[in-house]
Structure formats: structure tokens, C-alpha cells
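Entry details:
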Amino acid sequence: MTSNKDFLKFDNGVFKPYFVKYIDFKRGKGDKVSASTIQRLRVLNRDLNAYGVLKLDAVMIEQLLAPENSVSESSRQSRVSDLRQFSEFLNILGIKSDPVSSSYMRTVHCKFRPHIFTENELKRIVYSADHLSYGCRSHEHVRVYPVIIRILIGTGMRIGEVLQLKASDVDIDNGVIQAVNCKGNVSRYIPMADSLAEVLRYYISSRCFESLDLPLFISPYTQQAYSYDAMRYMFKKLCIDADVYTFAGKTPNIHSIRHTFCTRSLEKMLSSGMSLYVAVPILAAYVGHVNLRDTEKYIHFTEQDYQQFIQSESSLRGLIPEVDYDK
């Protein structure tokens, strides 16, 4: 069900109850409705309520999807997708709603370039997390964020996967984290290093979980799992405190930790003598990728790494038949 916190942030109007039903409908059939999606739907709810009528016609659609200079094409396409799906949902409920034409849809190429952290940068971020100052309202973040940061660095898990962990998902004795129903409906077991297992052992033993089905990281303000927005805000703060910036002078995206994990893990496997064609499938299974193409997006070779790969795989050249084009 939609939480009271989500519900209260939607502006009152004729469309508000239908957005709440829509979110519950999506979650009920197993779709993940992220914090960023909730934010987009709140804005869409506000804009639709401005019309003051419970319908969605072609004129409204054209106005709602009109290009704006201040809005990126990627954000606009997210709105196209949201409005298209919401329109279909309204029709299911018998509410007059015109379909969103396919002419509004565009293929958007993501320009996200991850920052591959150095070992020193990661150490500085961990240090910053370990030395957070106490807050006026709660001290809980001082205990939580150092653990979350270590899980991200030590496992390469998606931030959403970490935030949705339950206490029962952590098997300290066997050193395994269970990630359940993650992206692509993939569940997996994630082995962790002894050092990370000890951090989690101490964290869990210091908490008083009424039930192991409760979130592993509970916000003192909402009594629910920490939100992605809260983690993104804190990670930016940690990077600034640790003086960690991208080449463009910006703070790195938190998802860059996952890219760094994949890149460094592959480097270690290749340096140990493992073939790339063996290493990549292993890495894909560990990080929860359904296909190898997903994993390829996370592999970022430095020039030195590339040369080492070429040398290590040069023995394969003898297996490829020559083609003589001379007549």
C-alpha cells in the first residue's frame, strides 16, 4: 500500500485518489515504484489537478508533454511514459482518457559517465562516514551511514537493494547477504568479506529488532526504510567532506560505487590469470545482471588495463583462421 508519507505529499484534487490507487496497483503486480517515480507522479498529479476535471483528452496531453527548455529530453520521456501508463490505468477504471500517441516517444541515449573511485578516495569517504557529527533530532545516522557505505563498497549492490534489506536477509554466520526480488525480478546470494560481516554483526547486535522482517536500516523520522533521496543527499555531503569530485568538478553519483566495484573486481580476476570470458559471467551473476550486456556497461578499462588485456588474450589469435584476399 502507498505509505501515508507518500500520500500526504500529493496535492489535493480530483486526480489525487487515482494516483494513490495507481501506485498501489503497480506495487500490487510486483512493479517497483521508486522515490524518483513518486516525485514525478506528484508533479503530474499537480499539473492534472490544475485542469479541475476528471478526464484526460488530447489537448491536455499535448499541453502536458510540450517541450520545455528547462527540462531535459530524458526527463520529458519519463513524463511521456508516466502519462501513457496512467492514461491506460484510468481507462481500466472507466474514466475518459485519450491514449498518448507514440509520436511523443523518443529514444534517449543516457550520457551518464560514472566516476571510478581510487582506493584512496573510497577510504576518505569511509572516514567521513565514520566521523559524522551528531544531529539535533537524532543520532541514528551516525550508526547507519557508515554501514551502508561499507556494504556498497564491499558488495557492489545497488543502493535500492541495500535500502530494502531486512534484518532476516543478512546471514552473519555464513557471511552471506540475500537480495530478494531485485531489478529484473532477480534474487541472489551475495558473499561478503569477513571484515564486512563483522561490521554487520556489530550493527545488528546493537539494534533491538522487534522482528527480523523489519528493514535493516530504519529511519528515525519515518519509521520506515531510509529513502533513496536521503542516501543521495548524505552521499553528496560525504563526498564534499572527503574532497572527492569528478573531473568535471562535481560530486560523484552514488551509483558510481557499483561501477567501481565491477571494474576493480574484474581487474583482480584478470590479474589472477582468469580469462575475460570466464570472469565476466561470474561478475554478472554476483552483481545480479540478467545478461552479459548489462555487465559490459559497468566495465571501465584504464589504458594500462586495456593493454594488459590485449596481451593476456593474445594467445587466442592463433585460433582465428587467416583470410587471404590476394588472388
Observations:
- Residues 313-325 have pLDDT under 50 and may be disordered.
- The longest strand covers residues 176-179.
- The beta strands are 170-171, 176-179, 188-191.
